[in-house]
Amino acid sequence: MRRAVVVGLATVATLTGCGSETDAGGSPSQEPAAAASPEPTERAAPSETPSPQAPARPGMVVTTASSDFGTMLFDRTGQAIYLFDRETSDRPRCYGSCADAWPPVLTKGEPQAGGRVRSGLLATTERKDGTLQVTYAGQPLYYYAHEGKNEVLCHNVVEYGGTWLVVQPNGEAAP
After folding, report:
1. How confident is the model at residue 53 (pLDDT cuts 50, 70, 90)?
2. What is the tens place of the pLDDT at every residue in 3-29?
3. Is position 53 within any domain?
4. How far is CA 10 from CA 93, 114, 129, 165, 170, in A?
5. Residues 112/114/119/124 CA torsion (nearest 10 deg)
6. Is 118 inside a domain boundary?
7. Mapping DSSP to helix (H, G, I), strand (E, B) and coil, where does residue 47 land?
8. Measured between alpha carbons, how far is 4 from 24 in angstroms, rounded to an integer?
9. Domain region containing 95
10. How far is the C-alpha of 55 from the C-alpha of 117, rounded, in Å?
């Protein structure tokens, strides 16, 4: 029954912009691992004695789960995470209509590793609007806007001058 739902959703994804002859849909076979608490929305009041170096504010959690493409990156809510092969550095190139279809993975603090994510590969890069985009192994990360939680419908999709690929814990794109 689940496969029928995925096929139906793949058709919807194709109609909404994610899809091409290279589209190979899939869905995670398990929920992403539970992650740390959500990002705090308020900062603590400053202490009277400044610390030599304030601790980094915790940011969004990147974790892993199994999918038809192997173990890959998700956010803590189960949203699949992609890289754009047109980007060969940590400098984002996806803006405007590209970022509408493929929203950047943003954070307000240091990104946190969950599951099999390697914390040493997590970092951030500043976008033109000043927001912080999460990077992994030096590549900016994205979601697909028309994809539900725990769905992977847009791996190996060619759009906006490049190919969108799911990310494995080692930082490489899935085959």
Report:
1. low
2. 333 333 333 344 445 754 333 344 444
3. no
4. 26, 28, 32, 16, 27
5. -40
6. yes
7. coil
8. 15
9. 2-32+58-166
10. 21
Q: Quick check: 58 pLDDT over 70?
A: yes
Residue whose token pair is 């994809």: 147
Q: Cα 51 to the chain's mean position, in Å?
A: 33
Closest CA to 90 of 100, 104, 110: 104
Q: What is the pLDDT of residues 129-154, one digit of tens each?
A: 999 999 999 999 999 999 999 999 99
- The structure tokens 């400053």 sit at 46
User: Cβ contacts of residue 66 below 8 Å, gap of 6+?
Assistant: 28, 29, 30
In a domain, 71, yes or no: yes
Q: In angstroms, rounded to a whole number, what is the distance separating the alpha carbons of residues 11 and 43?
A: 44
Asked whether residue 65 is domain-assigned, the answer is yes
Domains in the chain, number: 1
* CA separation for the pair 31, 2 (Å, rounded): 14
168 vs 66: CA distance, rounded Å: 10
pLDDT at 45: 42
Name 109's Cβ contacts closer than 8 Å, sequence gap at least 6. Answer: 39, 56, 57, 58, 59, 60
